[in-house]
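Board notes, transcribed. Complex of a protein with zinc ion.
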Amino acid sequence: MIKIAPSILSADFANLERDIRRVASADYLHVDVMDGMFVPNISIGIPVVQSIRRVTDMALDVHLMIVEPVRYVEAFCDAGADLVTVHVESDTPEKIQSAIDRIHARGKRAGVVLKPKTPAEAALPYLEQVELILVMTVEPGFGGQKFMSDQMPKVAALRQLIDERNPACELEVDGGVAPDTCRACIDAGANVLVAGSAVYKAEDIPARILELRG
Ligand code: DX5
Ligand code: ZN
């Protein structure tokens, strides 16, 4: 069963509760946190996650695009995140490990994220510990970019490694996922698809969510 994680980066932040309710048939709510340092854009942070937590029971998938995520993972867990993902490129392996340990110590699910130029092998040190691996299919920072189909071999390689070493681990893709690209992600082995513009620009959002499930 393919899970859909609408990204609220494409929602209307002045009508966030309304736009969260519009995607209630999806599985996770994907929350993009950007600090203007790790990526050249600034989005939302801890107080907004707290407010979202009060208006939905959906599982919150918090994607941290920030430097030194170890400094903030506990705050995001306490704000109501169910799953917190950190980029392997955002700090040293020791600090990434510490971030994962801190998320787990809060009783939450942890994941690692790979940018397009980062090879699958970069996830190996964490593969047996995390609940999710996220493969970016655009350069992180902005919604509405073109899907990078050249990331599919990486997704397929990670699917094989996950099946061998940690079959409960989820495999998520993020960026440019739309009706014409979701099939490639599913065929490569992803089981969670993030979609921002494809969901929020749709005329009929529940129908679009169903369509993206493949
Ligand atoms: C990009 C974000 C994505 C983004 C996806 O840095 O991580 O989650 O919102 O948006 P679409 O689906 O429009 O590419
Ligand atoms: Zn994201």
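Strands lie at 3-6, 28-34, 59-65, 83-87, 109-114, 132-136, 170-174, 192-195. The chain has eight helices and eight strands.
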